[in-house]
Amino acid sequence: MLWPDPAQRDRLVEIRDNLLARIAEAQREGWLGEVEGLKISLAGAEAKVSQLDAQVARSGQAVDLGMPTVAHIVARTTTTPRQGHM
């Protein structure tokens, strides 16, 4: 999945606003096919803006991965001898 560049958020908002104006014009002129196509583009632009906002909100959050205990480390590294090969 391609992630939009956060620096381009203002440009995406500008595109979204332009699409809204074009939809209003197409509705006034009765261009129903154009309205439907523009609505699809608008949904994509709004999704990208939302994606950027969510990405920015998540970037400042720390993730607690926990601290492994000795028991967890030993359980993963302990080997047992194979049967018949002593």
Descriptive notes:
The protein has helices at 9-29, 32-59, 70-77. The chain is an all-alpha fold and 86 residues long. The model has no long low-confidence stretch (mean pLDDT 85).
Key phrases:
single chain, 86 residues, mainly alpha, elongated
Fraction of residues in H or I helices: 55-70%
Task: Return Rg in Å.
Answer: 27 Å
Low-confidence stretches: none
What is the strand content?
Answer: under 5%
Q: How would the global form be characterised?
A: elongated
Distance between the termini: 52 Å
Helices and strands, with pairings:
Elements: H1 9-29, H2 32-59, H3 70-77
Helix pairs in contact: 1-2
Short description:
This protein is mostly helical and 86 residues long.
